[in-house]
Fold this protein.
Amino acid sequence: MGLITKYSATLYAGGSESNLQCNAIVNCFNDSQITPVMTAYFYHKGYFIPPNSKHIDKVNLRYSISEYSHFLDLLRNEKPVFYYYNEHTKVGYIRTGQEPVCEESLEKGAMEKVLT
């Protein structure tokens, strides 16, 4: 399992004549590396999605484009975020760390109102 601390997102434009199968890519980094430790590829609806893979030290996860906004939401709004890949099963994912149920930023009085 690896930690994701930074990311860059690319969203490609092009109609059916462009023959784009993958229309979005998110490169994920950790603080200690300048090259991505994990790349997520997002494929048009109806296109074959290749299996997840690992190449040297980089994990490649593949998703349907319908998962793009959910993926970015986790990266933007959650801390910490981790990635994982099992080379035997070819299953990979990103996940958050453990978080409290209520936001810590709520004052005690505000939290009591939420709970009552």
Observations:
- The longest helix spans residues 68-77.
